[in-house]
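Forwarding the complex inputs:
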Amino acid sequence: MKYRPLFYFISFLLIATSIFSIAKWGFKTSIDFAGGSILEASFPGQPDKAKLSDLFTQQNLPLNSISLANQKNYLFKFQNITPETKTKLNEALKKFDPKYEELRFESVGPILGKELLKKTIFAIILSSLFLLLFIGRRFKDLSFGASAIIAMFHDSFILIGSFSLLGHFFGAELDALFVTALLTTLSASVHDTVVTFDRIRELRRQNYKIDWVNLANQAVTETIVRSVNNSMTIIFMLLSLVVLGGDTTRWFAVALLIGVICGTYSSTAVAIPLVLFWKRKSQK
Amino acid sequence: MASPQKKTRNIFIFIIFLTLVCLFLNLPKSIPISLHLGKINIDQTLTRPDFAFKIGSFSFKKDLSLKYGLDLAGGASLTFDIDTTKAKKENIPSALESLKGNIERRVNLFGISEANVMISNQNGQNRLIVELPGIENVDEAIALIGKTAELNFKGETTIPPEATASATIYDQFSADTGINGSHLIKASVEINPNNSEPEVALEFNPEGTKLFATATKKFLNQRIAIFLDEFPVTYPTVQSEIPDGKAVINGNFDIKSAKTLAAQLNAGALPLPITLIQQSQVGATLGKDSINKGIKAGLVGLLLVSLFMIGNYGYLGFIADIGLIIYGLITLALYRLIPISLSFPGIVGFILSVGMAVDSNILIFSRMKEELRLGKPWNTAMELGFGRAWDSIKDANTCTIITGLILFNPLNWSFFNSSGMVRGFAVTLLLGIFIGIFTGVFVTRNLLRVLAKKN
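Prediction (whole assembly, two chains):
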């Protein structure tokens, strides 16, 4: 545990960056939350984006942005459009390029977006509550429970912050799947911490006299290989998804990846130093 | 009492049996085999029999092909808000039911085999969800679903004998009577006092009465077909001229079918107005692309994990990899059996759960290594490793199960997420955790007991 100052520093840096990014750039929300429409289409002629953009202005169609997806497909984003506007849009694109093919179209009304946001916040609160209850039951010792929870919020906060950054620089959006990744991160974080804490409890049972710092050191040395190894297998699976999987779930996999890495880091670098912090206080 | 060795052996046989069954379930429906070795020529196709059996009057049949969600198979999902503000409260349940029936009938017109029409209630707001797998022209479908149904009465025409074979129902009933839904005041179910059989009674407005009188005169002793949205509903034979606009359709009705018919005839317009609020559609090409990418990513990841396990734990890692393969086979077999329709987030859930499935093994093997370092004999170290790691495995997985359940929302609580994407992820993740515990602990432990005894 001699690296404690370093851990504090890293965590502080990560959280500070997250706060900065959220405050400065906020988030990009997908149509899941904000409402709106997305059209993914392919044009064999690979026309210029500006030309397509002109087409929309001419036709008086409400276009927000055009980007490329899967290297060759075009992604158009709109305000929420009515079926009539959609028909008009299809006709215009067909005229522009007869070989145009519609690959995907999604449209979410603004009411539904708000509803999802409400449900999401509710789900996060509820899963935190359940995990709290579980940890409380599992570790009767308050300092363990509190540390695990703080580590859990530490991870989710960094995940949220990193998506603000990724959103600003690479266009990552918060959508329903991001929320799923966030909840999975909550559980992954606790999962890892529980394994480490279990070891501390076990060592303490074997040797009552050993002081907390040595105890923690021993527990960490004994579990860190397992922690890292386990994360490695999950990271392998997720990395191959990020690299080889499709665009639709790339950010989802990235979010899970960040969550898993944070979870592994925080169980050693946040949860345990916190336990030591409480213990030292109570010893005084 | 069976001896421990015997018990282990039995479990081992059971594991092999389970693996073979799962392997069999996962085989493609037909495998072409062609073998040319010198004089031996084998050229035939192995076909897996359908999963079907019959015990007494109970018959069971299961289609074992993997089901794909809309985002992979291609198709559209539409969500409509249902406006119930103008309907009377006590009528709403039946109005919703008949709305669902109407939409189902309209969707069937598209000839989509696995279309799904659902009514859901979210915070007091009724919604209509329509899923149309494999549909090409969604805009047309949206227009059709939302439009007012058309009721048409058409008389029978004589078809020249040489064309009978190719004549469709539309050729057969092509004489327009001019009567449509707007002429019908109502259709209701009545019981015939003579034979107490149910009948469907029709009542026309003055204009309809006139038209109907002409039509029944013209088509006396012939049939008049009633089309709903170009779909033939019934074709009663005209038994007498009807001048008063009150007709009765009788035939082989029971109460239920008579009620259905009356409801269909009444369905000139949708019983409740609907507005489209969400639409998502994926073309089949994009879906296929996603499947291929998902499979590729999964295989590469699996290979990396397997190599990592062997590199780190040697022989133990190899056994864990066998456990992982069994894990994959069982999971896929369950997807087919339950069945779970696989969406892209579902594939992510599966891939993630593969990473987590080896977690139990890593926990156990780390423990074993420690015990070995303390100088315990191999077999004891192994049993101790499994025993000590079990607590951690249990705790760690409980957390994931809690979150998985909240995401999956099994009781369909309206204040939770019910998005198909999120659920698709949660269900494969949850299933993965349970099977992962089974293969990671039970299967590998027994494999080790049997296979590693010689070491």
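Chain B touches chain A through 70 residues (CB under 8 Å).
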